[in-house]
Specification:
Helix content is about 40%, strand content about 15%. By secondary structure, it is α/β, with parallel strands linked by helices.
Length: about 750
């Protein structure tokens, strides 16, 4: 009874992660945390805090890490910050109407998992709590989700988490929010989550563990129409699980995936689905979702929560006030100065103190406070933060500009760009599409991993380096410009940046499943920001799972070669990748082998420049006997070093046959190998087959099985079988002789008996 009274008296608590532990908004987040980026003129974190307070949360523990001082300063503007041990006077919250806000600071935390362990050590959570990120905006009945969670907990203490999800009926809507493809397996009766898979490897089918899913239930729903809102109602045991398992770093991939896979522990996760069209929640993952959520907030999807600028002009379809009084009068009331010839389309917000020159056109854009927009300027679907200066005749399309950016006369900022604070674009210069520009130099050690702390110390050092007189990149920002490139360091990150930009072309193409066709910009600029290193980018942005995995295996193996990993460590690295991507051993083996073969030729354009020195410097024509001998000698050396690793990944004869089929694709420049020049190896196909056999990587049985399978193929698919005929025939004859010899021995043994 006493325990129930304690539970009843326990405060309604929330944990707010004010650090998102990702770098999808770089270079914006080099100088301020993502949670403080303005959304319709108001920091994201303020939406999160207002939502929690409106839902009756009594204690909010705000975890701060990168740029923690800025987060603290922002919180102080609206809430009286408290220490975790401060005691409220009886009924104080009901008198003040404000929740208790307690910051928890760590300057070295690098992941959500580590943050959860720090919160556990603080001992501040005493009951079921809400876990939410500071870049989430929401307006729904949180108390209802909490009540449903507590009802389950009362009946079953193993119900440790309830995830809030919302329905998005079309793929286009999900892609509008910048979300990854998500497949959930849910018990339709209890709403228990049985499977959680982001970016499934195969879009045509879902892996279901029949033995566990249908053990005590008659049906399971496969839901791909749901979006994860990243709002969770958690039991205190969740923090304990993070404390007990240091492998839990990422909240979804590691923790949720781990709980669902560790069925023997009995912990359960449930889903709480929001009412479509009535309730709203969304997390801002990237620029794409930033743009979408901005428009949702602007359209009052957060009603009744209203968080907006003190003064701002907004244009809406059928706005009676504008029709009646005129647009300039309405702007003047909002503190905006604009010429009579200015055209402001629907769906715009313009901050107080902004001035707009003659004949400028603004369409579906968000302009911050104190901006100066010159004459004949065009702004189309842009986000300009405070103090941006756009000079006469400039054009900006589908891009984001941070505080204090200056775009000089006649300049063009092409779609998908992110320009960091203080960047200057020179007169008449065209910034290439999808460029990321900063006045802070990107260090060689810096990683563009999506899960990394924004280190203030690194940022400050890089900024000093850039200000000590090193030249700005004129090819990027033009003569008289000021800025340095912030580049993706691998093709996958580059595709992610483009895929999740606010470019409408990618939003539309991806939603239609046609991201492979990349339309040209109106100014004719090449969209590839690094065509020398990633030819696939110039062809489009579709994230073909096979192509991505091939790239990951290749780069992981090349890193092992470059850093001189021994076989054991290389095996651990590649096996970890296999597990993370839910692939087979054969999938790894075939891409390891094609990478090994590729090392015998000059580096392909799809390979990162950092591995260029690992590749042969001279082109080879394998039709020439001397060139072929040189190639085979090099390949034999590589197989002697890495053959054992290949054998570890080739578990059976079928795996070996699959490797040979993949080698055919490689030699045909087919599939994921379309840009790797594997056709240079075609003339040596037969000799490579023999080398694999001699190195004991491929067995005789596998080669003969491959040949038998190819015999029934169409004539055009027998090209490499014909090349391999001499070696296959020799193997077959040797196999027959071996069989005859075995038969003779058996006959002699029977005669002796």
């Amino acid at each position: 009874m006493g325990g129930e009274d304690h539970e009843r008296r326990a405060p309604f608590q929330a944990v707010v992660l004010a650090d998102s532990f990702n770098v999808t908004f770089r270079p914006f987040t080099l100088e301020r945390p993502k949670a403080l980026l303005p959304l319709c003129g108001v920091p994201m974190l303020e939406y999160t805090m207002e939502f929690l307070e409106a839902q009756g949360v009594e204690e909010a523990f705000v975890f701060c890490c990168a740029h923690y001082d800025q987060v603290i300063d922002q919180l102080k503007k609206k809430w009286k910050l408290r220490h975790k041990d401060d005691e409220d006077a009886p009924g104080e919250r009901y008198v003040t109407g404000r929740m208790k806000v307690v910051p928890i600071i760590s300057t070295s935390c690098v992941s959500v998992g580590e943050a959860m362990r720090i919160i556990y050590d603080e001992g501040v959570v005493s009951s079921d709590f809400v876990l939410i990120t500071g870049d989430t905006v929401a307006s729904f009945d949180l108390k209802s989700a909490l009540a449903e969670h507590k009802r389950r907990r009362k009946a079953d203490k193993s119900a440790i988490m309830t995830m809030v999800v919302k329905r998005a009926e079309t793929r286009a809507l999900r892609k509008r929010w910048g979300d990854h493809d998500l497949v959930l397996q849910i018990d339709p009766d209890t709403k228990q989550v049985l499977g959680y898979e982001e970016e499934p490897n195969n879009k045509n089918y879902v892996n279901v563990d029949v033995s566990s899913c249908f053990l005590d239930r008659s049906q399971v729903e496969i839901r791909e129409d749901l979006v994860d809102c990243y709002v969770d109602v958690c039991a205190p045991e969740v923090l304990g699980l993070f404390q007990d398992n240091f492998d839990y770093q990422n909240l979804r991939r590691d923790f949720v995936g781990g709980v669902l896979s560790e069925e023997e522990l009995g912990n359960k996760i449930y889903a709480y689905e929001l009412s479509p069209g009535v309730e709203y929640a969304a997390r801002i993952h990237n620029p794409r979702s930033y743009d979408a959520v901005s428009r949702d907030v602007w359209a009052h999807w957060l009603f009744p929560i209203e968080v907006g600028q003190t003064r701002a002009f907004t244009s809406r379809t059928h706005n009676a006030g504008i029709v009646r009084r005129g647009i300039q009068d309405c702007m003047q009331d909002a503190g905006v100065s604009a010429s009579r010839s200015v055209e402001v389309g629907n769906d715009c917000q313009i901050g107080e103190g902004t001035t707009i020159g003659d004949n400028s056109k603004i369409h579906a854009s968000f302009v911050g406070k104190g901006c100066r927009i010159g004459r004949n300027v065009e702004l189309n679907c842009c986000h300009l933060l405070d103090g941006v200066n756009v000079v006469d005749g400039a054009r900006i399309h589908f891009s984001m500009l941070s505080d204090g950016v200056a775009v000089q006369e006649g300049a063009v900022v092409s779609e998908g760009c992110l320009l960091g604070s203080g960047v200057v674009v020179g007169k008449d210069h065209v910034v290439p599409a999808f460029s990321r520009v900063s006045v802070i130099r990107q260090t060689q050690e810096d990683s563009d991993s999506e899960e990394e702390l924004e280190s203030p110390a690194v940022v400050e050092g890089a900024a000093e380096e850039a200000k000590e007189g090193e030249a700005w990149d004129a090819t990027l920002v033009g003569e008289g410009g000021k800025g340095l490139p912030w580049s993706a360091k691998n093709s996958q990150t580059r595709r992610e940046w483009r895929r999740h930009s606010i470019s409408p072309h990618y939003a539309q193409l991806e939603a239609a499943g046609m991201a492979g066709a990349l339309p040209e910009t109106s100014d004719g600029e090449d969209r590839s920001d690094d065509s020398e290193t990633d030819e696939t980018d110039s062809e489009g942005l579709e994230l073909d799972p096979e192509e991505v995995f091939h790239s990951e295996v290749r780069e992981t193996f090349l890193r092992c070669v470059k850093e001189r990993f021994d076989q054991t460590n290389a095996l651990i690295e590649l096996n970890a990748l296999k597990i993370a991507e839910d692939r087979t051993f054969a999938d790894c083996a075939r891409f390891i082998f094609t990478t090994i073969v590729g090392l015998c030729f000059p580096v392909a354009k799809t390979v990162s420049k950092e591995y260029k020195d690992l590749y042969a410097s001279d082109s080879l024509d394998l039709a020439d006997k001397l060139h072929r001998a040189k190639f085979l000698k090099h390949l034999k050396s590589l197989l002697s070093e890495w053959g054992n690793l290949l054998q570890r990944f080739l578990k059976n004869e079928d795996d070996q046959v699959e490797l040979l089929l993949t080698f055919e694709e490689y030699c045909s420049d087919d599939g994921v190998f379309h840009a790797e020049n594997g056709s240079m190896c075609a003339e040596g196909f037969c000799q490579v087959l023999q080398l694999l056999y001699d190195s004991e990587v491929i067995s005789e049985e596998a080669i003969l099985s491959w040949a038998e399978e190819k015999e029934s193929a169409e004539e055009e698919d027998k090209v490499f079988l014909e090349k391999a005929r001499p070696f296959v025939a020799w193997l077959a004859e040797a196999d027959e002789e071996s069989d005859e010899y075995s038969s003779e021995e058996e006959g002699e043994d029977s005669d002796e008996d």
